[in-house]
Amino acid sequence: MSDLPKKTVARTARLASLPLGYAGRATVGLGRRLGGAPAEMVASQVQQRTAEQLFKVLGELKGGAMKFGQALSVFESALPENMVKPYRATLTQLQDAAPPMPASLVHQVLSRELGADWRKRFTSFDDNPAAAASIGQVHRAVWEDGREVAVKVQYPGAGEALMSDLRQIGRAARLLAGWIPGIEIGPLVEELQARVAEELDYTLEADAQSRFVEAFADDPQIVVPAVVAQSGTVLVSEWLASDRSLARLMADGDKSERDHYGELYVRFLFSGPERAGLLHADPHPGNFRVLRDGRMGVVDYGAVARLPAGGLPPVIGQLMKLAVEDDYQGVLAGLRRAGFIKDSISIDADELRAYLDPFIEPATTETFTFSRAWMREQFARINDPRSPGYTTVLKINLPPEFLLIHRVWLGGIGVLSQLEAEAPFAAILAEALPGFRDARPRH
Predict the structure, then answer these.
(1) Got the DSSP string for 156-167?
(2) Half-sphere exposure of 396 toward its Cβ, with a 13 Å CA cutoff?
(3) At 27, phi and psi to the nearest 5?
(4) What angle do CA 150, 153, 154 make, to 5 degrees?
(5) Where are the alpha helices (DSSP H) in 35-154?
(6) Measured distance CA(205)–CA(8) in Å, rounded
(7) CA distance 177 to 188
(8) Any idea where the domains of the chain sit in the sequence?
(9) How crowded is residue 104: how many other Cβ atoms within 10 Å of its Cβ?
(10) What is d(CA 373, CA 232) in angstroms, rounded to the nearest whole number?
(11) pTM of the shown model
(12) How many CB atoms lie within 10 A of CB 317?
């Protein structure tokens, strides 16, 4: 581990290159503007080159930056097609994998956590990782009782790297605080750091996974692998026989498959809180596995929201119901009470309707077909200075207790859009959201 400081310096330099790189390209862009180039063309060039560097740097890193990259990759459906098309394969890979660590290092961790005779716990152990992600990688093995298992091994130094990355991302975020008067950045950053730090604790993960195992034990369509053993930075679970994730299904699945697994995906995300008292808060599609019998397997329970009331806050369903019924005066009052709009911020119901109504569309019809085009349209709308949503989005605060819920909501919609799945979204919300069940859709 003597090279850890060098690695830390190197990853810090790569992270630092993101804002510096953008600043440099923006300066070049200014020069081109002064030279007479159209503003739209220059902005597009700067944006595309920034995206190129962002995807490249995040793809080389583990830890917090890698997690940030995986979260970003979920939203690729919102990016302009001409920008994201060359990187879609890279983004899909980012959702599924990261560079592996050497077998010798894996053996050191297993020896430390399971004992020097760790091999006796297994009848076989594959040194080649079956999957790798932000803070650990997974090896396929056979446990001593004959069960096929997945052995999740945390990268040595992952905690230090993860928190270092988050501190840097947090410092960058705080620089924006003065530019966005409607949003309290500080509490959000603290909440993110606290929740992500929990992912380093495999004891917490094993407990969360076991709760989901119990909650979905009799489910005919969802499979949660049982925990076999846990020690420090090693977690052993039953193996899921799957050669594809939802990330791969996006590329090669037919419409019936994408519709089927898209519906299972969103049903799992929204039913988890009521059934397990927890929200699976890592919606990136690499965690959702296509099983050969048509069921969906769900892995990685490091990121969960532990919901105090044992389910999603009723205010979410209540506000959705009011929006579906076009009562935006009620939505506005409810958002203020829940802390989504600060007292100092001025916003009216018509402005709020113009911003939110297109996002509410999937909940207003019997079925809705999500698509990349629809997702891009929404993001383009709120990023267009001529659009009402352009300033409205800066007025809406995100209370820290809704951070992971918001991540799952937007991430889930992003995955459905990449799958281009058709789903009975309103019915799923009616089943899962307290306060929404008697909503009267407009159509």
Answers:
(1) TTHHHHHHHHHH
(2) 18
(3) -65, -45
(4) 145
(5) 39-60, 63-74, 81-84, 88-96, 103-114
(6) 26
(7) 11
(8) 4-96, 99-132+135-239, 243-443
(9) 8
(10) 44
(11) 0.77
(12) 21
Q: Tokens for 298?
A: 């769900």
Instruction: Give alpha helix (H) positions in 75-131.
Output: 81-84, 88-96, 103-114
Task: Report helix, strand or coil for 228.
Answer: strand
The one-digit pLDDT tens for each residue of the chain (443 residues) are 434 444 444 444 444 443 333 333 333 333 333 434 444 444 444 444 544 554 455 444 444 444 555 455 545 555 555 555 554 555 555 444 455 778 999 999 999 999 999 999 999 999 999 887 667 899 999 999 999 999 999 988 877 767 776 676 666 666 655 555 666 777 777 787 787 778 888 999 999 999 999 999 999 999 999 999 999 899 999 999 998 999 999 989 999 999 999 999 999 999 999 999 999 998 989 899 999 999 999 999 998 999 877 789 999 999 999 999 999 999 999 999 999 999 889 999 999 998 899 889 999 999 999 999 998 888 888 777 777 777 887 788 888 888 889 889 988 999 999 999 999 999 999 998 888 877 665 55
Amino acid 407 reads R
By residue count, the chain amounts to 443
| Helical H segments across 115-232, by residue range | 158-175, 185-198, 202-215
> CA-CA distance, 29 to 249, in Å (whole number)?
38
Beta bridge mates, 279: 305
User: Which residues does 390 contact at the CB level (< 8 Å), separation at least 6?
Assistant: 382, 383, 384
Q: How many CB atoms lie within 10 A of CB 306?
A: 16
Backbone angles phi, psi at 281, to 5 degrees: -110, 20
Owner of token pair 């709308």:
381
Q: Tokens standing for 267?
A: 């049903």
Eight-class DSSP state of 325 = T
The CA-atom distances, in angstroms, between 28 and each of 21, 35, 80, 428 are 11, 11, 22, 49
Closest C-alpha to 419, from 263, 303, 289 = 263
Amino acid at 212: F
φ and ψ at residue 336, rounded to 5 degrees: -65, -45
Buried b (16+ CB within 10 A) or exposed e, 345-381: eebeeebbbebbeebbebbbeeebbbbbebbbebbeb
Interatomic CA distance for residues 189 and 171, integer angstroms: 9
Kindly state the tokens that stand for 51: 């995206």
Closest CA to 228 of 339, 127, 114, 366: 114
